[in-house]
Amino acid sequence: MPFTSVIKRVRASSYLLHATMFLGASMFACGALFASDDYVLTEEDFLVEIPLVSGPTHMDQTLAQTPASVTIIDRQTIQASTAVGLIDLFRLVPGFQTYFVDGSRMGTTYHALGDEYPRRLEVKVDGRSVYESLFSAVEWSSLGVTLDEIEYIEVVRGANAAADGSNAFLASINIVTRSPLLDSGWVVNSQLGTGATRNASVAYTGKLGSAHHRTTLSFRRNDGFDDSSFKETPIIVNDSSENITANFRGLWTPTASDSVEFQAGVSDSDLGIGEREYFNRNIFYRYQYVNWTRLTRGGNKIKLALYHNDLDITDETTPLTLSEAIGVPDTSPYWPLPGLPDKLVIDDSNHSESERWDLELRSTFNPLDNLRAVTGVALRYDRVAGQELFDSSDDMTRTSHRAYSNLEWTATDKLVFNAGLIYEDNTSADSYHSYRVAGNYQLNQNHIFRIAHNRSFRSPTLLENMQKQVVRYNENIILDASVISDSDIDNEQLRSIEFGYVGYLFDQSLNLDMRIYHEQLTDVINERRSGYPDLDNFVNIRDNTDTLDVDGFEIQVQYKPDERFMLRGYYSFSDIDGWTLYTSPPAIEIRDLGEYSLKHGAGLMASYRYDSGITISSTANYNAATKHFRGQPVESHTRVDLKAAKRVTAGRSKIDLSFTVQNVGDPYSEFYQYHNFETQYILGVRLSMP
Amino acid sequence: MSIWSHCTARRRGQPGKTRLVSVVVALLLMTLSLKVNADPLRLLFLISKPSADYVAVMDTVRRGLEKTLPGQFKVSVEFVSRQNDSDLQPESNDLIVTIGTAAADTAYRQIANSQDLSLPILSVLITESSFSALAKRYFGSDEGAFVRHISSVFIDQPVDRSIRLAKLLLPAAKKTSVMLGPSSAGQQARIAKIIDKTGMESEFVSIGASDNPIHKIEPALSRSDVFIPVPDSRLINLATAKWILHLSYRHKVPVIAFSRTYLRAGALAAVFSSPDNVAKQTLELVSQIILSPEHQGRAYEPEYYSIHFNYSVAASLKVPLREEQFYRQRLDGE
């Protein structure tokens, strides 16, 4: 029973108990001028910020107070954008590199190392981490979050490990879905487009007893990229995808002080994935999430959250015998296993599993008038399994703990300091402390300068820690070892420093955000080539092989002079100076990583709503030439998307019609050169019946 | 009769122009009298904490005094959060301006502990209920505080302004729902009369700490044309704001709020005392209190107020907005 062991770990962890005691004590630490039974208002009841957005420290902060650069993609932006899928929205974020590995697999990374499974971003949906240990990444295609369900997305640009833990190594994303209180009745959405795009969803928002809920059933399918060629060899690109998802989100507020949120979902995806050769992957994904929040009289908050993610993956592969795999019959004198017969060495399917339980207790309080704090303790249980990935039928498990505290100290009316510290340990790597310190100087209400320093660690995931991907003939003979994790694999490390500026101009209609940074990544986990006693005498060892220095700057502008017009733009420059230990001793080979920089990236989105109810939007994205990490070199390109939308009202019902053209102009390559993004035409209809 | 209504009556008897003239005359007299007395007056700003709103009030008043009465005040600033009570020496000042409840608490304690000590205190950025609670604690009653020359300017804007603004913004509105909490429950009858005067029907929702807020707010909000939450304890404000705004969006019912942050979060309009409003009235009262003992020992309602609109919400709810001046003139004119 996984949770039994989890509970045992809690009992055994004295530091966690101490932290919990501190947390409990802190709840009552906030002094009050008046007795708790006096109904006395103070000026703070008027001046207090009404919280709606949670910042990068888990405190409700304004951009003037945050210790990091933050991009907020709000609902208005989402509705006006030319995005068709969730991943498209990250093309609006400076420093992000967003791409389709293939038609059914998406990736996004910040600054560096964006391979087919980018693994240094924490991604949460309503606070629930969707980072999967099995992929060491986020499986975007099976998330099942439709654009219509999203209220806003908060992207913390820069390491956020001090608040979000190990995976927020380079940045963190929190996708906040709409409260069921915001809507009522039915919403039906449909999109039809080229590439056999067929997206549809039905959502109902209503009441179940005294709880409000939204239940959504959605379906997505497309054919992915068109067939292509590589080095004059035709490639049949079988990367179609199909996903069906059911989500439920409920809200219950038994008292003014207490609110309980519960979520559950299930999704089933069939994805065609691969690199020149494609296979079908089925992902069956389930989650359950509950959080209880209590407000105290003093405005303090305590939150208890528990979630469970469960992922089953089945890869349908072409069965292969040894003779088919090496092209040598067992009757040949070159047969590598004299005396042993040919046999099936690769099955027609591989099954793997990934499961996570996470329990977190968090308190937000004001120890002093000018000091705010968030303190939390959490424990997590991860389990992965997969014969093909781990060369074992056993479960690979890990229990990890974290205790953190983020403080915001308003030293003067112009100076705010933030400090965050997190302690993490787990059963399969060294424990570590990540921290962040930042100072914000508010020259006046409209100009804020920030300096921040981060020291972060990222623990190897279960896959990185325990991978042993081999093809066996039998228990004693390994035919081919492809990836094996080094037994001494260590935590990745990051030191970064940044200077930031947030400005509000033209009566606050223009918001400017600038960030200059230096990031130093060491012990970065990658693969080094090494000798191995198998048929090809070669294996990739997963180890701490890379060192990178990333320098750059980012500018983000949002201009909203009125309710009709919106302009968002960014420019980012990023330069990687790094190397990787490509080949193990004795034939040491060091390779440069500089070619993986996305040196120049830019984006511009504009939207205007006419009196007639028609809204036109356009998005332009420029990416300089780069080479995708573990992918291929791609040329510089500019992609332009256009969209026209109109709302028609019929009684209380509303119909939103939209027509989107993605990539007006020539095709460009994404991740692999033979995955060409052609012009896409998508017709959308949204009907809401409250 | 509460201090509030008492002083409201007194202050309303003083038309704006007359008041302006009296302030100007007071400043002139003060300038003349201070020229006779060469020593500058010692003014202590005692501030609860160094947060932006508190410091903004102090800065604005200090700058105003330097501009209108240069060299006439020797100003010192102390933060309650940074020092011990024993460090304070109230007797070495001619006037103390407390900014925030914690500052008032500290000053009142010192005054109460020393019966011989008599100097005027002006408390700003304080609510009516905080002032009454402190006055009762240290001086037995509000009157007891007034006798010790303590004056206050309340931060609470009268709900009347929000109700009248609601009617101006939504002339077709027929029904207003008002949310009250434990602290504000006593205002129900008075608020009902004000709403009645505007020609609207009223409905009240009382939220206690043990109530399901959504369950109670939604029926009233969904039946009304405008919703007005009356400020209450922080727990009630925080616990209800998010749900009120979400339900407001869902039922397309505008909310008239009491703070800038509430407005930013999704209310249609807000009437509140900004730091500038508080500072302006404080600046006027400092000179009056120094010069004329009759201005000491009184509670003042907020003379100035800010109205802000959320244009996104107005567009979403299709509420046409005029210039702020239009509403201000009508609110002041009534």
Protein described:
- The complex is a heterodimer of chains A (690) and B (334).
- Chain A is mainly beta and 690 residues long.
- Chain A has one domain: Maltoporin, Chain A, CATH 2.40.170.20.
- Chain A has eight helices and 42 strands.
- Chain A has a 22-stranded antiparallel β-barrel. A five-stranded mixed β-sheet of chain A has the order 1-8-9-4-5. In chain A, strands 2-3 form a two-stranded antiparallel sheet.
- The radius of gyration of chain A is 26 Å and the shape is globular.
- In chain B, helix 4 packs parallel to helix 5 and helix 9 packs across helix 10.
- Chain B has 14 helices and twelve strands.
- Chain B has two domains: 182 residues, Response regulator (Rossmann fold, 3-Layer(aba) Sandwich), CATH 3.40.50; 141 residues, Response regulator (Rossmann fold).
- In chain B, 48% of the residues are buried.
- Chain B is elongated.
- The N terminus of chain B is likely disordered.
- By secondary structure, chain B is an alpha/beta fold.
- In chain B, strands 2-1-3-4-5-11 form a six-stranded parallel β-sheet, sandwiched between helices. Chain B has a three-stranded parallel β-sheet with strand order 7-6-8, sandwiched between helices. In chain B, strands 9-10-12 form a three-stranded mixed β-sheet.
- The chains are: A mainly beta (690), B alpha/beta (334).
- At the A-B interface, helix 3 of A face helix 3, helix 4, helix 5, helix 9 and helix 10 of B.
